[in-house]
């Protein structure tokens, strides 16, 4: 599974990164959360609001920080 | 007779919901009867101002952010971009400025947003209209202005804020400054993300999250603002303030603008300062200039913007805004008798 957190490195983005890592750990998924800070890559992914969460190439959240519980549901849906 | 009743009904509604006169009275009793201080004394007065303003701003903030976020959830940047793409010339600038007031985004998203808009073929002038109006005129701040001052001032603020955004953006279009935008911005066409319609529950959740996030982000600025306001309110002698910022000092607007530009605070933090300054007899225009300078231009947002535009365009952008704010300030000072 490919999980990406995208953001400019602001506080919100780091928070989402932490949440995503927590969700991955709690669900014992064997993958690393990729943290993307390159603006071009963020824009190329179709995001206009940061932070963004992309799971398996699909935008799951943009411009908001879903709580850990919600991220786990998103992960479960992608499994 | 009928109209009189309606008018007094709305005045009462305004006093209860926006000005919260009952809250002021409540805290006056607390300060006088419980703490044994007098509101007319400097310390008691400052304490009253601090308590009343802090609680009022946080109540209004929470209610307003929730309502405004709910409305905003209908206008994600993707949709705004699509709407703007259908218009040309000045009407695109006007629409950009209007949509800037209701499209939610935090300043850390301004770069992906700038690239996203430009990449989709929107003229940079339209994007700038959007970027100017967005921090300057947001729905919640307008209602706070109406609460602290009155509706005429709030509406006048919206009008001049939008005009500044439209004129600023149009000027940037007219000057053909595209060459000063970093070339990579125009590069690879981005994927159009699919838009999914939100459910009522998701909009409510968005509103709730926004309230939590914004309150967490601005509470300190609000407290600092209210503290400064309380200090100005009762401790700094009025003649010192009027000497520096008063009507007879022709540099007052200039000083307020220059001091405000590098400051980074939310409009919610500047309002209590503005309120206290107006109370001390500082011109309305001077105070509005200060608020606009603080919110429209700030070091963090300029540093972000520098990543996508060259210094020349950044300097032109700052100059246009600064001159606009100065003109607005002097204009309001000249006609302030219409508003207060």
Biggest sheet features of chain A: 4 strands, mixed
State Rg of chain B.
21 Å
* Structural domain count of chain B: 1
How many separate structural domains of chain A? Answer: 1
Q: Helicity level of chain B, as a percent range?
A: over 70%
Fraction in beta strands of chain A: 15-25%
CATH fold category name of chain A: Glutaredoxin
Which keywords apply here?
heterodimer, A: 79 residues, alpha+beta, Glutaredoxin, four-stranded mixed beta sheet, 3 helices, 4 strands, 22% strand, B: 340 residues, mainly alpha, 16 helices, 74% helix, 0% strand
Describe the structure.
The complex is a heterodimer of chains A (79) and B (340). Chain A is an alpha+beta fold and 79 residues long. Chain A has one domain: Glutaredoxin (3-Layer(aba) Sandwich). Helix content of chain A is 42%, strand content 22%. Chain A has three helices and four strands. Chain A has a four-stranded mixed β-sheet with strand order 2-1-3-4. In chain A, helix 1 links the parallel strand 1 and strand 2. The longest helix of chain A is centred in the first third of the chain and has 16 residues. Chain A is globular and about 30 Å long. With 340 residues, chain B is mostly helical. Chain B has one domain. In chain B, 74% of the residues lie in helices and 0% in strands. Chain B contains 16 helices and no strands. In chain B, helix 5 packs parallel to helix 7. The longest helix of chain B has 35 residues. Chain B starts with a helix and ends in a 5-residue tail after the last helix. The model of chain B has no long low-confidence stretch (mean pLDDT 83). Chains A and B meet through helix 2 of A and helix 4, helix 6 and helix 10 of B.
